[in-house]
Structures are given as C-alpha cells and as structure tokens.
C-alpha cells in the first residue's frame, strides 16, 4: 500500500467527483453532506455526497456511470452498492472513503442538518432540503425512537436477567455479552432523545458529560463478581429510566429482587 491520503488528496478527490457529476446530463445537482459540508472535523474526515437525478428512473445508469468514473481514476480497494438505500461506498487505495447517495431531485430532503449544495441546475434542491428539515428530524428520530423503545421494552429485561444468571454462574464473558446488547439499546434511546446518530456510537461523543458518565458506569472493568454486578445494576437503572412510563413485562423492582436473590446476602446495595 502507498501513502495514506492527506488533505490535498481529499480535495483532489472532491474536485474529481464534482467534475464527473457535472459531465453527466442526468445529474441535476450535487450536494455535500456530513462533516465536510460544515467544515471537516480533521484531516481524516471522509467525503459524503448526495446526487440529485433528473428522475428516479435514471438511478441505475447514473450509479453505473459514477462507479465507472471513480474506478477508472483511482485504485479502489473496496466498493459496495446498497440498492435498497441507493448508496455507494468507495474506499480508495489511499484509504479515503467516499460515500455517495442517489435520489430524484423532486424528493430532495436533508437527512442530516449539515449540507452544502455544490451546484443545482434546477434551482430548487436547496429550498427543498431546507424545507425538509421542518419534518425530517421527527420522521427519522421520532419513528426510530418508537422502534427502539419497543425493542428495549420487549427484549432489554430478559437480557438483563440472563446477565444476572451468568454472573451467578461465574460466566463472565456471557454476562458481558448480555450487558453489551442492553447497553446498545440504551445508547440508541439516548441518541433518539438527543437526536444524535447512535449507530456504532457515531455521534454519542456529543452527549452531555453527565450522560457519557452514566454510560461509563455500565462498562465492565473487571471479571470479578462485584464489578460485574455493579455494571449490571447501573445499566438496569439507566434502561428503566429511559423506559419510564412504558409497559415492561418485568418491572425494575422485580428485576432487582431477582438480582438480589441471585447475588445472595441482604442485597442492601441494590
């Protein structure tokens, strides 16, 4: 492998994608999204674009066109095309990642707050994207929160129970695995509440410090029984806090009694 990309390499790739898009008659607008639209976070930020087409029917042709142009210009280590999401992901030989989404200009919408219209033959794309912000957050985070609450309500408690049993049996790795599953549910709920992208914890570093400290309290720092119980009980309280007002088959009180029984003793620290 050669050198890892630098800022100038990224700028060169940006210019190439812009030039290639302009050359295609079916591409009516190019929009930069992600961190680059508001000023790159650092010299390792990647490139994210959305291509607006003259119609959805042009999508296969334009996706093939962009794939061919980028493949001819650069050594591509990795390429993936997600047909359902109308998304292409490229990783170049210098490890620069380029993600390109596609859609008809009539349905242009901003799925993230940061975007920059690089050119627009129709003169309508930017206005459509600005207007879409009025309802897009509720559509994305509101709908996702409903699904995440349902998932946490229906499955969180049973994985917490399994973790308690695993600790009781001395199965530390099983306990950690069960808790990691529930922690992901919890982080998804936090992301929904603060309207941050929680997949792979992408934007979770932007949470208030007290929320991040709460997450840290659920991390397992040792395989000894006391450390495992502490992490589990902290996680249990946090998850049920996010599910306050929801109907959960096993209540927090019931789960704490279950843990107390498995842990033994008077359980006063529960």
Radius of gyration from the CA trace? 24 Å
Q: Which ranges are low-confidence, i.e. pLDDT below 50, for 5 or more consecutive residues? A: 266-270
Mass-distribution shape:
elongated
Number of helices: 7
State the CATH superfamily name of the largest domain: Nucleotidyltransferases  domain 2
Mean pLDDT comes to: 91
Give the strand tally. Answer: 6
3D structure, described in words:
It is built from seven helices and six strands, in the order H-E-E-H-E-E-E-E-H-H-H-H-H. The protein is an alpha+beta fold and 270 residues long. It has two domains: 7-123, Beta Polymerase, domain 2 (2-Layer Sandwich), CATH 3.30.460; 134-263, Four Helix Bundle (Hemerythrin (Met), subunit A), CATH 1.20.120. Strands 3-4-5-2-1-6 form a six-stranded mixed sheet, with helices on one face. It is elongated.
Give short descriptive properties of this protein.
single chain; six-stranded mixed sheet; 6 strands; Beta Polymerase, domain 2; 7 helices; Four Helix Bundle (Hemerythrin (Met), subunit A); 270 residues; alpha+beta
Topology record:
Layout: H1 7-23, E1 27-33, E2 47-53, H2 59-73, E3 76-82, E4 87-92, E5 97-104, E6 115-120, H3 125-169, H4 172-194, H5 209-216, H6 225-242, H7 252-263
Parallel strand pairs: 2-5
Antiparallel strand pairs: 1-2, 1-6, 3-4, 4-5
Q: Summarize this, please?
A:
This protein is an alpha+beta fold and 270 residues long. The chain contains 7 helices and 6 strands. It is 51% helix and 15% strand.
């Amino acid at each position: 492998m050669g050198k890892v990309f630098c800022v100038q390499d990224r700028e060169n790739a940006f210019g190439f994608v812009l030039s290639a898009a302009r050359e295609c008659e079916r591409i009516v607008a190019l929009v930069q999204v992600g961190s680059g639209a508001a000023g790159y976070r650092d010299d390792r930020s990647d490139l994210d674009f959305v291509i607006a087409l003259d119609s959805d029917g042009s999508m296969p042709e334009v996706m093939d066109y962009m794939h061919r142009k980028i493949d001819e210009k650069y050594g591509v280590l990795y390429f993936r095309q997600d047909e359902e999401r109308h998304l292409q992901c490229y990783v170049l030989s210098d490890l620069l990642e380029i993600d390109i989404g596609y859609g008809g200009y009539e349905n242009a919408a901003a799925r993230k707050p940061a975007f920059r219209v690089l050119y627009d033959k129709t003169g309508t794309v930017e206005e459509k994207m600005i207007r879409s912000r009025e309802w897009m957050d509720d559509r994305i985070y509101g709908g996702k929160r409903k699904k995440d609450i349902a998932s946490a309500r229906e499955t969180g408690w049973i994985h917490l129970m399994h973790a308690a049993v695993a600790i009781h049996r001395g199965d530390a790795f099983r306990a950690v695995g069960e808790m990691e599953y529930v922690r992901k549910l919890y982080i998804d709920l936090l992301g929904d509440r603060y309207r941050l992208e929680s997949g792979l914890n992408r934007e979770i570093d932007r949470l208030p410090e007290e929320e991040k400290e709460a997450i840290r309290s659920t991390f397992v720092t040792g395989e000894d029984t006391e450390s495992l119980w502490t992490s589990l009980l902290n996680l249990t309280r946090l998850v049920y806090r996010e599910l306050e007002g929801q109907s959960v088959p096993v209540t927090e009180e019931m789960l704490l009694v279950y843990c107390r029984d498995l842990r033994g003793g008077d359980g006063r620290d529960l």
